[in-house]
Amino acid sequence: MTTQVKIARVLNLLALLALLGVLSGSLHLQFGQGEPPCPLCLVQRSGMIALAVGPLLNLFTGIKVRNYAFAILAACVGGAGSVRQILLHIATPGDPGYGPEVFGFHLYTWADITFLIAVVGIAILLMWPGQFAANDRGLLGTPGVMRVLTITVAAWYSIYLIAMTIFIIPMCGIGMCPADPPETDYLPSNGAWLAIGGAGILSLLIGIISNSRMRRR
Fold first, then answer.
1. In angstroms, rounded to a whole number, what is the distance separating the alpha carbons of residues 170 and 95?
2. Most buried one in 127, 191, 197, 211, CB count within 10 A?
3. Distance from CA of residue 132 to its chain's centroid?
């Protein structure tokens, strides 16, 4: 394995961890502060989870152009949802925006910035041919810390996806979610962070156990 592939793997893993941080914040807002997501918020969250698929494929199956391309498409979908929400609130004079602000920007604005950074970052990586020339086959056959971390991150995303699905279905049913869903208290703020941390610990255990079993095979 070349140095270029090692660096590319680390960069993909760091991108996944950054996305996990963004999703953790949005889920804490929902479950710890009673701010359920609006329909466009769900589009943005779904875009972030889909965006994570590209780096995960790079890590599991090898660095490929098509994996980066998939991530760009996911970022475009999520970014479209963010821009749509931004424009909706700009078009209404005196509209304070939806949800709380972080450093002066609403979360959908931060989501749009996240997707833009992702597209630019991936475009820069695509101009680096060394990672593709090595014909990387991924981490599935390579036991070690990187495989543990990759499986951990994949499990963490899966837990978030399951949690989002479980709590969204009762709120939205089989139709469209309400444009301005009512606030709902699920957990106290500290309890929400504990739940998020618990999801991380569970994911790490899954990563360690899976890596051990795959090694024995």
1. 29
2. 211
3. 24
Confidence of residue 170 (pLDDT cuts 50, 70, 90): low
Instruction: Tell me how far CA of residue 47 lies from CA of 42, 70, 77, 79, 118, in angstroms.
Output: 8, 11, 6, 8, 11
- What is the C-alpha separation between 36 and 205, in angstroms, rounded? 29
The secondary structure of 105-118 as a DSSP string is: EEHHHHHHHHHHHH
Angle between helices 189-216 and 3-33 (to 10 degrees): 150
Enter the tokens of residue 217: 């095979």
Instruction: Name the 3-class secondary structure at 101.
Output: strand
pLDDT at 217 over 50: no
Distances (CA, A) of 31 to 37, 42, 163, 184: 10, 15, 10, 8
Could you give the CA distance from residue 141 to residue 121 in angstroms, rounded to a whole number?
A: 28
Q: What is the pLDDT of residues 118-145, one digit of tens each?
A: 999 999 999 998 888 788 888 888 888 9
- Cβ contacts of 182 within 8 Å, gap of 6 or more: 36
Segments in the chain forming alpha helices (H): 3-33, 39-61, 65-90, 107-126, 130-133, 145-172, 189-216
pTM for the whole structure: 0.87
